[in-house]
Amino acid sequence: MFRSLSRNLRASGRIQKGRSMSDDKGAREFAIALDKSKKITVLTGAGISAESGVPTFKEWREWSAMLTTPEAFAANPSMVWEFYHYRRCIVSKAVPNAGHYAITALEKRCEQQGKEFKLLTQNVDGLHSRAGTKSVEELHGSMWKTRCCTCDQVLQNFDMPICAALDGKGCPDPSAYDANIPRLQLPRCRSCNGLLRPHVVWFGESLDLGVMERAHESLRRCDLLLVAGTSAVVQV
Q1: pTM
Q2: Which of 24, 87, 208, 226 is least buried, going by the fewest C-beta atoms within 10 A?
Q3: Residue 216 annotated in active site
Q4: Which is catalytic among the residues 100, 128, 140, 199?
């Protein structure tokens, strides 16, 4: 979606191919484009959180990619929750970096100048919100939200650990054993007691329709698109 829209915007002259900001000319050109723009969209990915010490988690027990599917959760929800508990522990200790705060500052500047602003992020770490950015679309969901497998209720959850049975679990060492936590001891819905899952988009799943429509509209309307920390391509 992002690459096709970016090509269309570039072809129409509404955005230009990325340039280096290392020289004064590039910085001046960017400042002029930013000043002229009225509708600004920012797209971010994992690269922007790298300076905060947030890893990709691809090496968790050497096979984390196999855990980020609905089939993996159905077969072994205990191990999937161990993986996400470990991720939540790591991210909870991270803090937003200068890149996150720069985007927040841009949003405030747009508000003061009466410009439209929207942040689209592929990240699930929540660091943009912690930095103070308000107009955020989390394209792939959030590790700080849960969704009930029975009633579909979505809620924020910052509990650490998210359930008692996960306390101390999630060791990334390849030799670590699966905790085999019984399903009834895994995170449960407060409304219907159904099994909870992380509210993230896994491989094989589609983006939330509402989120996708809002993102598409933001990209269609913008006259300046800033891309940071992503190639807009997801690789396993």
Answers
A1: 0.87
A2: 24
A3: no
A4: 140
Burial class (CB in 10 A: 0-12, 13-18, 19+), 156: exposed
Q: What are phi and psi of 142, to 5 degrees?
A: -145, 135
- Tell me the pLDDT of the chain (236 aa) as tens digits: 545 444 544 444 444 444 445 567 888 898 999 999 999 999 999 999 999 999 877 767 666 778 899 999 999 999 999 999 999 999 999 999 999 999 999 999 999 999 999 999 999 999 999 999 999 999 999 999 999 999 999 999 999 999 999 999 998 888 888 899 999 999 999 999 999 999 999 999 999 999 999 999 999 999 999 999 987 655 54
Residues forming beta bridges with residue 156, ordered by sequence position = 145
What is the C-alpha to C-alpha distance for residues 198 and 83, in angstroms, rounded to an integer? 11
Cβ pair 79, 67 in contact under 8 A: yes
Q: Specify the DSSP class assigned to residue 38.
A: S
